[in-house]
Amino acid sequence: MSGDILEALTQGALDLIDEGVKSTPSFGLSAMYRAWQKNRIQEAQEILIAELKSGTRLAGDVDQDSFFGLLFRYLNATKQGAARRNLKLMAEIIRSGCFDVQIPFQPDKIASNAELVSQLTREELLLLATLHHHKLALQNSGVTEDELDRSVHEATLKDLVPKYFDSEDHCEAVAVSLGRTGLVTTPAVWDGNRIQATPRLEELCRLCDLESALSM
């Protein structure tokens, strides 16, 4: 699918939201909302088109119904006020899942991961990115799985506390909240609870770069 076609499709879909914004009365709070929403639409368009243009898969390899379903999720997240970093991650997932020839096209998984990242807070993204970073760095160190999990947990806490989280309890509370996503678990061990990445976090990180989103 060429960049020109992607840009036209994305622009057309975003125009559907823009029509709703144009119908909002231009006075008081409504006028402020209209201006905010128009800025959001333009920003979302730029993020998505920039990502999709870097894809390499041929148009015929992607089911149109699935692609437009993903686009709808992205537009809905834009409409609901998702942060710029969340939109960037959603756009990366759509691009990777639909237009990266090295990744199998699996619409259900792409949609599930796109929906998931749309709701993550900055604290949650920070914890996930740090956990994944250390898992990658330590996974070939020749230790047992239990030793690896312990080392990753300790390195993650060392990085985040107290620089980003005021205590280990704060960090672990964020990890417990992330339990709803299936990206981490917090099993009880002899010295407390351990923060562990799951295979789903690895799957997510093949589709998007959590660390890069934190700079936005």
Describe the structure.
The chain is mainly alpha-helical. Helix content is 67%, strand content 4%. The strands form 2 sheets. It has a two-stranded antiparallel ribbon with strand order 1-4. Strands 2-3 form a two-stranded antiparallel sheet. A hairpin with a 2-residue loop joins strand 2 (188-189) and strand 3. Helix 3 (64-79) packs parallel to helix 5. It is globular and about 55 Å long. The model has no long low-confidence stretch (mean pLDDT 84).
Overall body shape: globular
Helix content: 55-70%
Structural class: mainly alpha
- Which ranges are low-confidence, i.e. pLDDT below 50, for 5 or more consecutive residues? none
Largest sheet: 2 strands, antiparallel
N- and C-termini, Cα separation: 28 Å
Beta strands, count: 4
Rg for CA atoms = 20 Å
What is the residue-averaged pLDDT? 84
Total count of helical runs of at least 4 residues:
10
Strand content: under 5%
The largest beta-sheet arranges its strands as 1-4
